[in-house]
Amino acid sequence: DSGVTQTPKHLITATGQRVTLRCSPRSGDLSVYWYQQSLDQGLQFLIQYYNGEERAKGNILERFSAQQFPDLHSELNLSSLELGDSALYFCASSTQGESPLHFGNGTRLTVT
Amino acid sequence: GQQLNQSPQSMFIQEGEDVSMNCTSSSIFNTWLWYKQDPGEGPVLLIALYKAGELTSNGRLTAQFGITRKDSFLNISASIPSDVGIYFCAGLGGTSYGKLTFGQGTILTVHP
Fold first, then answer.
1. CB of A60 within 8 Å of any CB in chain B?
2. Cα dihedral B72/B61/A2/A75 (nearest 10)
3. pLDDT beneath 50, residues of chain A
4. Which of A37, A40, A91, A103 to mutate to test the interface with B (most CBs of B within 10 A)?
C-alpha cells in the first residue's frame, strides 16, 4: 500500500460529460502529480501541485483542470469528455520536488 | 522535452533466468527510479538512485545510475513467476525540475 488513495476506482460515463477524480496523498507529502495512462501507452505527465500551488504542467488538455486544496487532497476535473479520454488516471505524491513519487492505484475512466 | 528510451520493449524468459533492462536519455537526470506495474494497479517504486555511479540492490534487484547521468540499468536475478509485469524507468530532475519522465516500459513474462 503506497498510502496514496484515489477514488473512484472505476468510472463509466458518456461523451460530453464532466467527471471529477479525487486523490489523497500520503501523509506528509506536499506534492501531488497527475498522470494519464492510455492503452499501449506509457505514463503521460499531466500536472503537478505543491502545497496548493500549480508547479508544473505537462500534456494536459484545456478541457482538463486540477486543483490542490488546503488539506492537500487534489481533484482532477475532466470535461466535455471524448472517447479518447478513456484511460487510467494516476495520482502520485512526494515529499518535495525531487523526491521519488508514490502512486495510487488509479481511476479507470471509460467514456462511451 | 526530455525523453527516455527503454529497452527491450518485452522479454519472455524461463523461471530462474536473469533479466537485464536499461534506459538511456539524451539529457541528464538527478535521480533515476525503477517502478513495477502489475495489471490494474499503480506503479510501485522498486529502487531509487541518487548519485552518478551508484549501484543499489533490493533483494534480487540491482540497479545502477550511469556515470554520465544519462542512463540506468535494472537487473533481476533468478526470476520467479511473480516478477511478471511492466517495468518502468523514470528520471527526475535535470532540466524538468520536479517532473518525473517515464520510459516506455519493459513487459516481462516469466514462464514457469
1. no
2. 20
3. none
4. A103
Own/partner long-range contacts of A3-6 (Cβ < 8 Å, ≥24 apart)? A3/A27, A3/A93, A3/A102, A4/A91, A4/A92, A4/A93, A4/A102, A4/A103, A4/A104, A4/B42, A5/A104, A6/A89, A6/A90, A6/A91, A6/A104, A6/A105, A6/A106, A6/A107
Quote the cell numbers at residue A73: 487532497
Q: Which of B30, B45, B105 sits opposite A102 (nearest CB)?
A: B45
Residues of A in contact with B40 (CB under 8 A): 105-106, 108
Query: Which among B25, B31, B30 has a CA at the least distance from the CA of B5?
Result: B25
What is the per-residue pLDDT across B55-110, written as a single tens digit (0 to 9) for each? 999 999 999 999 999 999 999 999 999 999 999 999 987 665 567 889 999 999 99
**Residue in B33, B42, B101 closest to A104 by CB:** B42
DSSP output for A19-52: EEEEEEPPTT--EEEEEEE-TT--EEEEEEEETT
Read off the amino acid at residue A76. L
Q: Across all residues in chain B, what is the average pLDDT?
A: 92
Residue of B nearest to A87 (CA): B40
Give yes or no for a contact between A23 and A76, defined as CB atoms under 8 angstroms apart: yes
> Any chain B CB within 8 A of the CB of A103?
yes
